[in-house]
Amino acid sequence: MPVYRLLIADDEALEREGLEWMISRSMPGVFEVIHAANGRTAIQRAEQHRPDIVLMDIKMPGIEGLEALRRIKDIHPRMKLVLVTAYDYFSYAKQALEIGVRDYMLKPAKREQMIGLLTSLVQELKEEHVRREEELKTTEKLARLEPLAESELAMHLMRERTSETGESDLLELLALPPDPSGYALVLSFEEEEPHRVSGGPGLWGGGGENGDTASRKHMYDAVKSWCRSRYTCVVSPLMGRHLAVFVIRPGETEESGGAGRSSHSEPKSASAEEGARACGEAAAATAACGAAGSAAKACHGQPVPPAASAEAAEPAAAASKLHGYVSGRLGRRATVGAGRAHHGLTGLRRSYAEACAAAINADESAFVRVYDGEPAGDGPPIPAGNAAAGHGVPSELELAAQRLLSEREERTTSVLKEAKDWIDAHFVEEITLEQAAERVHLSLHYFSKMFKRHMGESFIDYVTRLRIDRAKELMKNDELSLKEVCFEVGYKDPNYFSRVFRKVTGISPTGYRGR
Q: What is the pLDDT of residue 406?
């Protein structure tokens, strides 16, 4: 049983000791009692011990009780505050309510009233503790789900596919707009040895396989952290030497030309001058950069043409800054391709295809490029797998994405096998879909969909089939009554068992046994 801290603040020592004696006798082992002889000491004790409950007298020398309670409330808002006083003045009660005092008790406090109040407060503390624990568990689950949801949404955008987890669910989970606008960046690392920074090992160099894996993770985490600190974005997993960044422009369409700003993103309608300035910054850190225009080409730190549109200028600026960070801060040679800004999820997919096309068309003299194809309309995304024509997703990206999907499918198969084994061993018990999902640490919705997809039937249908198949086996034993068979396979009501059996087999249990 937890022990709660109780602060008794009263200038009369006899009063404090009397309250402690009464409470200790009636509620042994529940409280650790702390004394304070005046308001100043009560504040100090509250700062030091963080009591759960405070019993405070109003009239004390120096800082009076109500003022002390105000300051204590600022220290620990969850403290339960109780006034214990001989003064039954309405003005005191009004001030006490404004502070958040839980109750108001007149001296001399009767034992039944005091113990009843403290018992009620302890119950409140217990309930609040349970609620906080549940909130922490929920927060922890969301923290674990968010990276998975981000990777899943990125894969949706990188490949035209559907899955059991809908895009709207993923957007909601990630607190993104339901119909986002934005653009894509594709970061592609060079194959050759990375730059050496301060004479140290290259970012991906040395250390063998384990060292390479650790350095890849370090670089990926650094890039992702940098992007998320500047933009509202979705960052894909690192696939081979590539990753994609989808920068979200909330509440804006291509037609509106708005200049909204989110709490995590830079200005959403960058001018041509801003794009040129970003190009210059990136060029100072490394090589040349990309510019935007009606036929955007690679540049070497030169101004972006005045005709550059916002749909291309902003991605150009973002791509240049990302390249500058990767090259200058991480010491890694890389190419950044940028797609133009489009509206909706279809637009983000198109921007990704554009970014891939731009990335693979970059050459040694230009490491940042913005897609320079025909102006984007509302048509379908650029098809993947046509890299040779300059308008497709690089085959390496396609293969990497496919490998990632295959690995995920393998993991899902393994998890579902674990769930199936557990269900097979416990189907005669009162098991639920929620229990099975929790067993393998998947969300209820996702587990239900994946189970039906892989097993060919729902969780309920699968458990029912196991029970009926088991019932058929048991019916071969004439020594067992149908009622006993019903109980053996997990049903409590023979009539319900009979209905389920008939629904599955087309015949009653009696008819089945009599065949």
A: 64
For residue 391, name the pLDDT band (cuts at 50, 70, 90): very low
Q: Determine the residue type at 352.
A: Y
317 to 66, 113, 340: CA distances (angstroms): 57, 69, 11
Q: For residue 412, what are the CA distances in angstroms to 76, 179, 435?
A: 46, 29, 17
- Residue with structure tokens 């034993």? 477
Structure tokens at 122: 């302890």
Question: Could you tell me if 351 and 342 are in contact, meaning their C-beta atoms sit under 8 angstroms apart?
Answer: yes
**Closest by Cα among 452, 453, 472, 471 to 462:** 452
Question: pTM score, two decimals?
Answer: 0.46
51-55, 196-200, 321-325, 487-491: which has the minimum mean pLDDT? Answer: 196-200
**CB-count burial class (<10 Å; 0-12, 13-18, 19+) for 322:** buried
Type of residue numbered 476 = K
Q: Measured on CA atoms in the order 49, 50, 56, 60, is the torsion positive or negative? A: positive
Do 483 and 489 form a contact (C-beta atoms < 8 A)? Answer: no
pLDDT tier, 239 (very low <50, low <70, confident <90, very high otherwise): confident
